[in-house]
Design goal:
The chain folds into 3 domains: about 15-235, no CATH class; about 250-495, P-loop containing nucleotide triphosphate hydrolases (Rossmann fold); about 500-739, no CATH class. The chain is built from 29 helices and 17 strands. The N and C termini lie far apart (about 70 Å).
């Protein structure tokens, strides 16, 4: 990474991260096992300055090599040992602090490898005393460091008119950065940057192209302004390698409301997911249609948004929306958030699917085989900028944590920059996930290094500290699909996402109508979409308030107003007693119901009722096929009989189930899951225990559920509307159970 002065040019977060890690290794493994190591290192820092730097690099290399041999003999992992070739960077970094005005070159890996590319491209002179080692200049001795500096001294001597345009301090680093950004055009053009044995023509093509003094002044101003912009862009992509950071209030609360604007989930559930992500990976489990997949994508992209600048060191100083950065600045907002890579699990997954594997490749009629990276490896690599040339060299030294620029999944077609990318695995248990993850199980357990197959064998890919996997798991199909091992379970937090309760009835009704009509806009020009609002002229307008809550404004004379609130929604809520239908099913149901009415311009309640009957048959019926006969009976009676007859039959069913405590418990548990509009349960745990586990001296003859509870649970106060086709389907399912 480029290292420049701290007056605005210095950008060294990734190097500081590596430097801090090096010091931590030294304190933990070197000083702890060798009391003399600390004194030896102090001696290296004694009298360190720009003049003595080359000699100190040589001494440091010898010291680190001796310690490496000693620590390897103790069995210490290679990842815990400081590489001796880091001596040039370590000592030049210390020299920069101890002698800030000295003429020195901070030997980061970026600087060394970029210099190799400039030499090989003919843009810098070759040096007989310093030869590249692969893609790097390895600096072990004082002579090698002096030769390294002399490469750039030739540039300054040959073209002072060019180097004078660069910032005086650390002009070499700036020259490297500029040359690397223009390397291709310099190599392919007639411009000569450095000729062998002739250093008089630097950056000149013909004698007529020499600049007058006033032109040079203009170039200097224009060049510096452009360079500032380019460097700022270059710098903003590289970030500190750090753990997933918490979100300070009030941003967290505001971002939770923004999540709820997209999907209706209780705030406490979102906070549970947030807390789980701060500590590790998460699987969202629950019945179909509850928004698990959408939530997995929205939370990383929205919850970690901040209108502040991306520097997380100042996040906790914010006290309000104006504290740091403009709230409406999309780039500032997303640069602290995370985008996601969404993949859907299938039964044929293997290690090749997630990690890597050999695949055939055809070109010009010839078939060859090469390594293809899997979904997990690809997502991890998106977070890194690799400064080397061979994947064998993956390490915290050659990888720099970088931002990710991609399209926004919420605002499709808009490209934005995010802090990183996570992996979302939809339908987690549809794949043999333990087999597909393979050795990644160890990495997810805290090892933080993923072993990946490469062309020459395998290499270790570091996992960013803020990288996460979010899975979605359909709990309804759990018994029919692949099982998850206990080893994998302990690496994830499992958080259940259930349909919204009746306490959120108004909010859910509004968001269902909003999304259904939004999808049907193309069918009728009377349906219009504005920002956070949908209007069906003459029928209803749905829009969100400042808190992100959707509300409906109806023409109450329209037949849909009564049918939606007194027929369609009550029936849907009753079906939910025995089958946890998510908001997605409600949206699909209402969309299917409205489509024929919009196309054929229905005007009467009977027309809309016929369409509703058909919609329940087409969208909901098949999802009720798994219900047991006693549950189907209750639903059929609810749809057929008046309130009094239904209540009598329901009580009779419960009385018959006294001798079947498991089935009785299932019915009562279904009631206990329901809450009223105030969030209070209709049936408490004590009531259920009383009926399902009575005292030994108590003989239970009948179950008594108060009529008031039945009225509320089954909406018995609403007028009865029959759905003959839907009832017929339910009868068919009951008959199939009998067979």
């Amino acid at each position: 990474m480029l290292l420049l002065p701290q007056n605005g040019w210095y950008v060294g977060k990734n190097n500081r991260g590596y430097f801090n890690t090096t010091l931590q290794k030294f304190a933990k493994h070197y000083v702890g096992s060798n009391p003399e190591a600390s004194e030896q290192f102090r001696a290296l820092l004694q009298d360190l300055n720009a003049r003595t730097l080359g000699h100190k690099i040589e001494q440091c290399y010898t010291f680190l090599q001796q310690e490496k041999n000693r620590l390897q003999d103790t069995g210490l992992s290679v990842h815990s040992i400081i590489s001796p070739i880091s001596s040039a960077f370590i000592m030049s970094q210390f020299a920069h602090w101890l002698d800030p005005q000295g003429e020195l070159l901070i030997s980061t890996q970026y600087v060394r490898e970029s210099t190799v590319k400039l030499v090989r491209g003919g843009l810098l002179p070759n040096h007989t005393e310093l030869k590249p080692s692969g893609s790097d200049f390895i600096i072990r001795t004082g002579a090698q460091y002096s030769a390294f500096l002399s490469l750039f001294d030739a540039v300054r001597e040959a073209a002072p008119q060019i180097t004078s345009l660069l910032p005086p301090a650390y002009w070499r680093e700036y020259f490297i950065w500029w040359s690397m950004n223009h390397r291709k055009e310099l190599i392919t053009s007639d411009t000569v940057l450095m000729k062998e044995n002739d250093n008089a023509e630097l950056l000149s093509s013909t004698p007529t192209q020499h600049l007058h003094m006033e032109e040079q002044d203009s170039l200097s101003s224009e060049y510096r302004e452009k360079a500032d912009d380019e460097l700022a862009s270059h710098r903003s992509l590289f970030i500190e390698h750090e753990p997933l950071l918490p979100i300070p209030e009030p941003w967290l609360s505001e971002n939770i409301r923004e999540v709820q604007r997209h999907i209706l989930v209780d705030e406490q559930v979102i906070r549970r997911i947030y807390h789980a992500l701060l500590s590790g990976h998460v699987i969202l489990t629950g019945p179909p249609g509850t928004g698990k997949t959408d939530l997995a994508r929205i939370i990383p992209e929205v919850l970690w948004r901040s209108p502040m600048a991306a520097d997380s060191e100042h996040m906790d100083e914010a006290e309000g929306p104006e504290a740091n950065g403009a709230p409406g600045d999309a780039n500032n907002i997303t640069e602290t958030a995370y985008t996601t890579r969404l993949v859907t699990a299938t039964d044929d997954w293997s290690t090749r699917t997630l990690i890597s594997g050999i695949v055939p490749h055809q070109k010009d009629g010839q078939v060859s085989y090469r390594i293809q990276y899997g979904h997990l490896t690809t997502a991890i690599m998106k977070n890194w900028s690799f400064q080397g040339e061979r994947t064998e060299d993956w390490s915290m030294l050659s990888l720099q944590r970088t931002r990710v620029t991609t399209t926004n999944s919420l605002a499709r077609g808009i490209t934005q920059t995010f802090k990183g990318q996570w992996l979302v695995i939809d339908e987690f248990n549809r794949a043999p996930i333990d087999r597909a993850l393979g050795d990644a199980l160890t990495a997810l357990g805290g090892h933080n290094v993923l072993r990946v197959g490469i062309e020459s064998g395998s290499a270790e890919l570091p996992i960013p500290l803020d990288f996460r996997i979010i899975g979605s798991l359909n709990s309804f199909d759990r018994n029919y699909l692949n099982q998850i091992s206990e080893a994998l379970k302990r690496r994830f937090a499992f958080i259940e996402i259930l349909p919204p309760t009746r306490a959120y009835r108004r909010e859910e009704q509004s968001i269902v109508l909003y999304k259904a009509l939004r999808d049907l806009k193309h069918l009728n020009q009377d349906i219009t979409i504005e920002e956070n609002a949908v209007t069906w002229a003459g029928v209803v307008t749905i829009q969100s308030d400042a808190e992100g809550i959707y509300q409906c404004d109806w023409d109450q004379e329209h037949p849909l107003f009564t049918l939606f609130y007194q027929v369609a929604w009550p029936i849907f809520e009753v079906l939910r007693i025995y089958r946890q239908l998510g908001t997605a099913q409600a949206i699909t149901l209402i969309r299917q119901w409205l489509t024929p009415g919009i196309l054929r311009a229905f005007t009467t309640a009977d027309q809309w009722m016929g369409a509703l009957d058909t919609a329940f048959c087409d969208i909901i019926a098949d999802q009720l096929q798994v219900l047991l006969p006693d549950e189907l009976d209750v639903l059929i009676w609810y749809l057929k009989f008046d309130a009094e007859t239904f209540s009598q039959r329901y009580q009779q069913v419960l009385d018959k189930l006294v001798l079947k405590p498991r089935r009785l418990g299932a019915h009562l548990d279904a009631l206990s899951m329901l809450v009223d509009e105030r969030g209070q349960p209709f049936l408490c745990d004590e009531d259920i225990e009383h009926y399902t586990d009575p005292d030994e001296d108590e003989e239970l003859e009948e179950i008594v559920i108060e009529q008031d509870i039945l009225d509320q649970v089954f909406h018995l106060d609403h007028p009865a509307y029959h759905l003959p086709h839907f009832v017929r389907r339910l009868r068919t399912y009951k008959a199939e159970h009998g067979l």
